[in-house]
Amino acid sequence: MIIASSHVVTVIDVHIYSMYSNDRCTWSFINKCDLFKLDEGPATQVVLTRDEGLQYYRIMQTMRRMELKADQLYKQKIIRGFCHLYDGQEACAVGIETSINLSDHLITAYRAHGYTYTRGGTVKEIMAELTGRRGGIAKGKGGSMHMYCKHFYGGNGIVGAQVPLGAGVALACKFQGNNQLCVCLYGDGAANQGQIFETYNMAALWKLPVIFICENNRYGMGTSVERAAASTDYFKRGEFIPGLRVDGMDVLCVREATKFAADHCRSGKGPILMELQTYRYHGHSMSDPGVSYRTREEIQEVRSKSDPISLLKDRMLSNNMASVEELKEIDVEVRKEIEDAAQFATTDPEPPLEDLCNHIFCDMPSLEVRGTNPWAKLKSVS
């Protein structure tokens, strides 16, 4: 369900079987996207297979439980420093990842734990990074905001700064002609940054294969979007770039919209902008209780009506695609995985002091270009 909309997800009770397997499927009607500078949008009648549903459920539950465990460890002062949790927004990460390739590229802001997982990081590596241990995905040196893996460029702490970097990655994709694209994510709080509009302009001029995605969770830190932006139609902000506004609480809506956007980019049409209407259950960060600028009743209403995991679970149960027992079994397995990862993250040793300055400089010959490194010797040629 879109947070600020009267649209209701409808599921029709029609079952089919995949022509390639015995995997049970269901046709589902999903919310229609709002469109900008587009004649047609993503499909609104889609197929969900049983295997897909179970996979999405497991990944979203893992992300949810991982964030709840991080909350617990932070309150125990085992995790320190900045920590921004992603619970409530799981459908965004899962829907995006199922619609692109692992060879494609993704960059996001500091609410990055979920994307680190969908991009290939393990729960153990993520939890150990949060606790600053040697087995962390960034060797215990990055913490919550700076996690990386192949084709995933973080985790960036400066508001909006990842957007021009993502356009640069997309420029590399176009230059190399590899049919890859870059998904470039930012929040509604960053959407008014000037560097984002500069990036829109460059991406449109050069027709870069980049999907700009604004994860609109309704609050930039403690400021509601209505108080921060004269126009909250973030999907229209590209002006000369086509856009979509998507129900970010429904994994199928996000999946279909991202497929549409990826096809747009790969066909050489240039960038496209998506706004995912979503919601975070925690505060902006662990230092924010999250209830001084919104009510507990508001949070509870979203949980009860629009929770992404509950929506998928209800869809699967109502269409007899899975049993309650099967889903409970997944829940038990996920909890065990999280507990094992937490145990590792609290017992793995911290990186030794001699590792402090490792992984900073790359041992490459300097370029003969003035100013490229502080040790370059200047010479005059007349």
Gist of the model:
47% of the residues are buried. The chain is built from 11 helices and 11 strands.
Please provide a written account of the structure.
Helix 5 (162-176) runs parallel beside helix 6. It is built from 11 helices and 11 strands. With 382 residues, it is α/β, with parallel strands linked by helices. Residues 1-22 have low confidence and may be disordered. It is globular, with a radius of gyration of 22 Å. Strands 3-10-11-7-6-5 form a 6-stranded mixed β-sheet, with helices on both faces. A 3-stranded antiparallel β-sheet has the order 1-2-4. Strands 8-9 form a two-stranded antiparallel sheet. 37% of the residues lie in helices and 13% in strands. Residues 60-353 form the Dehydrogenase E1 component domain. Pfam families: E1_dh.
